[in-house]
Amino acid sequence: MTDHLYYHDSYIHTFEANIVAWVPVSSTTAGSEGRMAAVLDETYFYPTSGGQPFDTGLLAPKAENSTALRVTQVEEDEQGRILHFVQNFDTGGGAKLSLPLRVHGTIDADRRGDHMQQHTGQHILSAAFIRALNMPTLSFHLGTDFCSIDIDAKSLTPEQAAAAEQLANEVVMEDRSISMRFVPIEEARTLGLRKLPEVGRDELRLIDIHDFDLTACGGTHVRRTGEVGCILLRKIEKVKQGIRVGFVCGLRAVATARQDYAALADSAALYSAPMWELPQLIRKSQDEARAQRKYAEGLLQDLAALEAERLIAQCQQASGVRLVRAKYDDRDAAYIKLLAQRLVRNAGGVPVIALLGATLAPPGLVFAQSAGLTSDMGALLKELLAHHAGRGGGTKEMAQGGVPDAAKVEAVLAEAESRLRA
Fold this sequence. Notes:
Strand content: 25-35%
Order of helices and strands: EEEEEEEEHEEHEHEEEEHHEEHEEHEEH
Structural class: alpha+beta
Number of strands: 21
Strand order of the largest sheet: 2-3-7-6-5-8
Radius of gyration: 34 Å
Largest sheet: 6 strands, antiparallel, barrel
Shape: elongated
Number of helices: 8
């Protein structure tokens, strides 16, 4: 079992320890075959646990003519061993050096510091949701770009979220002390923890934010709330178990706010307006776009009606049915579907079979017939498209599909007409 040094001091980024064993990664983690994991007698590398990702860094052997091993993943196995997955086991000389092997460990300080800010910020935010809204946290996730907590609530208004965010940032600005201690599980039950974990050990590690939050946690944290920097809520959405609140803290919050500002400034420049007018301008643009679409749809309806009249007038009856075949190089699949509907419904009392194609990308075909006719448009189109690497189908009365090559549209139409006239 590895000694978990990170429990005691999250600020230590360099240390020395002994590699006491090598473990094939394929035996511990799926999808990581071919790599090796180093087991140290003690470590400051944090393994994935409690919603917080692992540390990364280097293990540099103290032996001569050896190369530092890059640690790309850290996990804890069922035996309590911390497995440091290394990327260059062979080239780094790990296979050639005898055990125990003395190494100098270096942890990625920026990654560790970011995780400390996010995880401590989560403790503050979760406590704020309870104090302000009586909404406990069900789970926590620390991601690469953003973090989230799932809270036990059916809904969360923007005003409620702002209240919890305000309280959390007040605690940050007060720069309260944060301490850590180990206590027996029986004592922990009497201390009023925000959340008591499932009993599985005799002793719990408690993180105490002075006069604000006390909870059991094995993660890395800062020493004072002021080091969190700030807590910024980013997203609120309904999930299966409650409400998911996305957030960022510290330097990550600064980077995110800077990115947001740049996007808003660029957007405002497109409108030649201040950023605070963007919502109103976007709504206006959306209303105008909807009006333009409605107007264009009306024009398309009129165009299809006129075209249907022209095609019917030019088409000769055969056995009491008009068979219309047409290909359009300047129209899309949506137009020929609309035209087909017009043709089969507006034939002056004479049934119509419409075989239409459009070559504008993506190339499309529509087969349709008036009610009462016995052909099967869906089966016909599906069969013909199968011969031309296309896909499609539909009902007996109307079917639509497409082909990957516009040059094949005419061939499908010709084959369909030949079948129907046979």
